[in-house]
Amino acid sequence: MSDARGLSLRSSVIAFVLLSGVVAAAAMGLLVLVDPRTQDHWAGRLAEFTAGIRTLFGR
């Protein structure tokens, strides 16, 4: 028979932190998809980022 032990405290804390991060990222993703103001903000930030990358490579 297999050993039916639960998760250790350390594993539980790590799983909680990771799952909380995933939920927070999903919530922010939904906010960006739904709110036009955040869409404009992040579109501008992405444009600035890509322009900066292009200047590094001289394109």
Keywords, separated by commas or semicolons:
59 residues, 2 helices
Fold and architecture overview:
The chain is elongated, with a radius of gyration of 20 Å. The relative contact order is 0.06. The chain has helices spanning 9-34, 36-57. The protein has 59 residues and is an all-alpha fold. The mean pLDDT is 88.
Write the layout of secondary structure elements.
Elements: H1 9-34, H2 36-57
Helix pairs in contact: 1-2
Q: Please state the overall shape, judged from the principal axes of the Cα atoms.
A: elongated
- Supply Rg: 20 Å
Proportion of beta-strand residues: under 5%
Indicate the percent of residues in helices.
Answer: over 70%
Quote the average pLDDT: 88
| Alpha plus pi helix count | 2
Distance between the termini: 63 Å
In terms of per-residue confidence, which ranges show pLDDT below 50 for 5 or more consecutive residues?
Answer: none
SSE order, one letter for each helix or strand: HH
Major beta-sheet overview = none
Category by helix and strand content: mainly alpha
Q: Count the strands? A: 0
